[in-house]
Write a structure and sequence with these properties.
Strand order of the largest sheet: 1-2-3-4-5-6-7-8
Number of strands: 15
CATH topology of the largest domain: TIM Barrel
Helix content: 25-40%
Largest sheet: 8 strands, parallel, barrel
CATH architecture of the largest domain: Alpha-Beta Barrel
Oligomer: single chain
Structural class: alpha/beta
CATH class of the largest domain: Alpha Beta
Shape: elongated
């Protein structure tokens, strides 16, 4: 790639950089991401709340579902004023700005361009983004086309798109591996055909910042029509070498007026230029870049979390601007500085990106300032001796655990002060056993406090109330073993089968219970029939006679005359009518 030639052309660029979001198109091309129409509309609504300038809603020719999703975004987001909900305003509040531009991607083919127009037609502001490969390797293995054929197809595609809308963007795919002289010819032809934006994509993340910035400046110097016609130079950088944000910022410094980004940097392979990173870099280093944008950065964190939720792509903890640790401090030196003044170790305010304030994380690297600040926030007052002991215990716990929560800290503080524990019970041991095919068991051993007679009891604790089935049962002590049957609520006289006398039990079984393995269910059902008929069960010899079992809620049917007269019907075979 060429070296930087002239940076003076950047002075003629407008102050505001156009933010072109491609989360719904290039971001969705990440492996495993598939957004339906409703999800795309939800993300587009948040992007409009963030106040991005252009939303690339998708690639309509790819599928009927994508066409329907692009059209839904154009109808619902492309015609409504941008909302100001969330940290930037109250629900339902709107501003007087125009809706965002809704764009759709299309190859340099008539069918693609027509499908793109069908998708964005309902929007108030529409853009067709058409592209064509220009590098030698793409022309040889993908298109099998010469440079002249590529030039003719470029002009034809731009003219077809201009027939539908005045806002047309052209991208020479794999521009950073294209011969620079041929790239100049392609860009000049697209400008002459009527393109209002020319995008220079680093499709495979091949560029380095100083060379890429030099190309942007050189293109504007060699093609005067770019400035004369007010054509915007855009950049679309991929992150294969981790330089997407750096390349984009260098392009802005050399006169690029539009940056194509994706929320959380999602996209093909290693992803795209991260929206939140480049936006905050432009805002934070406006003194060096001399540019700004129109985004409401207080919506950045909310946008990042929404996209992460809907796509399933989690945000790494140390992600710049929106990561969980972006404003967290654990080192004692850093904590001391941040507690004194946040500017000592923070170049952005967390409130400016919609996040909570600075987070002081207690860990093994934390010092006394952070520890006693957390103690004060919990409302504890310690003497010098208690403070020394508490800090020492905190360090010991941090070495073992890593991060110390507020609950851990409170437990340390409670146990630090003097306390009379002579009347407290003490936990001696806890034993838990569980194995495949065995019943899980748990055992707790307590040393109880001194009794009134001065003695001490050591053994297995038996609580006054045991929890049974989620409730407290204080009527009786129930067996702890899960295999033992619980006492029935029904009185014993209603359960003659529970008599412990083996001989009486055998007598009650009768002829109908010869199979002992499956006879219990049959035996019980026969007893129920006997009770329903009012037949007194057979009793053991030494047992007291029982009154017929009666159920107040059950009506005992009477035997019909036919049942009594039929000698073939035995009492054991009578069924309830």
């Amino acid at each position: 790639m060429a070296r930087p030639v002239d940076h003076t052309v950047a002075d003629a660029a407008p102050d505001d950089v156009v933010i072109f979001d491609t989360t719904l198109r290039d971001g969705e091309q990440s492996p495993g991401i598939s957004l339906d129409a409703h999800e795309k509309v939800e993300i587009a609504e948040q992007l409009a709340r963030l106040r991005v300038d252009v939303i690339e809603a998708g690639f309509p020719v790819a599928s009927a579902g994508d066409l329907a999703a692009v059209r839904a975004v154009a109808e619902q987001i492309g015609n409504a004023p941008r909302g100001a909900t969330g940290p930037g305003g109250s629900e339902g509040e709107t501003d007087d700005r125009e809706p965002p531009v809704i764009a759709a991607l299309a190859r340099a083919l008539e069918g693609d361009i027509e499908a793109a127009w069908k998708g964005i037609e309902p929007a108030r502001h529409r853009r067709i983004h058409t592209f064509l490969s220009t590098s030698d390797i793409h022309r040889k293995y993908m298109l099998q086309a010469t440079e002249d054929e590529i030039l003719e197809q470029t002009v034809r595609a731009v003219e077809m798109a201009k027939a539908y809308t005045d806002d047309v963007e052209f991208s020479p795919q794999d521009a950073t591996r294209t011969d620079f002289a041929f790239l100049v010819d392609i860009v000049a032809a697209a400008v002459e055909a009527g393109a209002t934006t020319v995008n220079i994509p680093d499709t495979v993340g091949y560029a380095l910042p100083h060379d890429f910035g030099g190309w942007i400046a050189e293109l504007q110097r060699r093609i005067p029509a770019i400035g004369e016609r007010g054509v915007a130079i855009s950049v679309h950088c991929h992150n294969d070498l981790g330089l997407a944000v750096a390349n984009s910022l260098e392009a802005v410094r050399n006169g690029a007026r539009q940056v194509e980004v994706a929320v959380n940097g999602i996209g093909e392979r290693a992803g795209n230029c991260s929206l939140e990173e480049v936006v905050m870099a432009i805002r934070t280093r406006a003194d060096l870049l001399g540019r700004d944008h129109r985004l409401d950065t207080r919506e950045l964190t909310r946008t990042s979390r929404l996209v992460s939720t809907l796509t399933g792509y989690s945000v790494q903890k140390n992600k710049a601007v929106v990561g969980e640790n972006a404003f967290a401090h654990e080192s004692g030196i850093h904590q001391h500085g941040v507690l004194a003044d946040r500017l000592t170790y923070e170049i952005m305010r967390s409130e400016d990106v919609g996040a909570a304030g600075s987070q002081i994380v207690l860990g093994k690297h934390s010092g006394r300032h952070a520890f006693f600040k957390a103690v004060d926030e919990l409302g504890y007052e310690l003497t010098d001796d208690e403070a020394a002991v508490a800090f020492q215990r905190f360090k010991e716990l941090a070495d073992r655990k890593g991060l110390v929560s507020s609950e851990d800290l409170e437990a340390i503080l409670v146990s630090t002060g003097p306390a009379d524990t002579s009347g407290d019970d003490r936990l001696v041991a806890v034993r838990v056993s569980s194995a495949t095919g065995e019943t899980p068991r748990a055992q707790i051993e307590l040393e109880l406090a001194a009794r009134e007679d001065g003695g001490r009891h050591r053994g297995h604790a038996a609580p006054r109330h045991r929890r049974v089935g989620g409730r407290r049962d204080g009527r009786r002590r129930l067996p702890c073993h899960p295999r033992r049957a619980r006492p029935s609520r029904r009185p014993a006289r209603h359960l003659p089968g529970r008599c412990g006398h083996r001989r009486a039990r055998r007598a009650r079984r009768g002829d109908g219970h010869r199979d002992r393995r499956a006879g219990r269910g049959l035996h019980r059902s026969r007893r129920v029939d006997r009770r329903r008929r009012g037949v007194r069960p057979r009793l053991p010899r030494r047992a007291e006679p029982l009154a017929p079992a009666r159920h107040p809620r059950r009506r005992v049917p009477r035997m019909s005359g036919r049942m009594l007269a039929d000698p073939k019907r035995t009492p054991g075979t009578v069924r309830e009518p």
